[in-house]
Amino acid sequence: MFNDFINGGGSFLAMFLMALGTNIITRTMDEHGAFSVKLHGPGGLGALLSLTPIPVNIWMATYFGLYEGLYAGIAAWFVVQIILTGITKFFMPSNVGYLFNAASFAMVIGIILSVSTLP
C-alpha cells in the first residue's frame, strides 16, 4: 500500500505533522470551545486557525491519494487519524490548549512539505 508513496517521494513527516496538528487543534476546540476568547485572545486569527483541520484533513487524503489512488488515500487517512488520535489521547496531557500555537505551526510546516513533494 505504501510502495508508490515511498518510491514516489511522498513525505511521511508531512503526513505526521498535518495529522498531529489537526488532532491537537481538534482536542483544543473540544476542551475550550471552537471560538473561545479565553483560548485565542480577542483577535480573529485563533478562530480562523480553529477551522483549518477541515481542509487539512481533506488535503491529507488527497495528498496520499495522488500516490496510491483514491481508496488507498482515504484508508490511509483513517489509519493515520486513528493512530495519532490514540497518541494524542494517551501520551499528551489532558489540557493541550497551550500546544495550540505549536500545533498550528506544525500543521503549516506539514502542508509546505507536502506541497514541495508533490508527484
Kindly describe this structure.
The structure is a single chain. The protein is mainly α and 119 residues long. It has one domain (3-116). Helix content is 76%, strand content 0%. The protein has 7 helices and no strands. Helix 2 (12-32) runs antiparallel to helix 5 and helix 2 runs antiparallel to helix 7 (100-116). The relative contact order is 0.24.
| Total number of domains | 1
Assembly state here? Answer: single chain
The Rg value, from CA coordinates, equals 15 Å
> Which runs of at least 5 residues are low in confidence (pLDDT < 50)?
none
| Class based on secondary structure composition and strand pairing | mainly alpha
Q: How is the main sheet built? A: none
Q: Strand-residue fraction?
A: under 5%
Distance between the termini: 17 Å
What best-fitting shape do the alpha-carbon axes yield?
globular
Order of helices and strands: HHHHHHH
Mean pLDDT: 80
In short:
By secondary structure, the protein is an all-alpha fold. Helices cover 76% and strands 0% of the residues.
Characteristic terms for this protein:
119 residues; mainly alpha; 7 helices; 76% helix; 0% strand
Topology, element by element:
Layout: H1 3-7, H2 12-32, H3 37-40, H4 45-50, H5 53-68, H6 70-91, H7 100-116
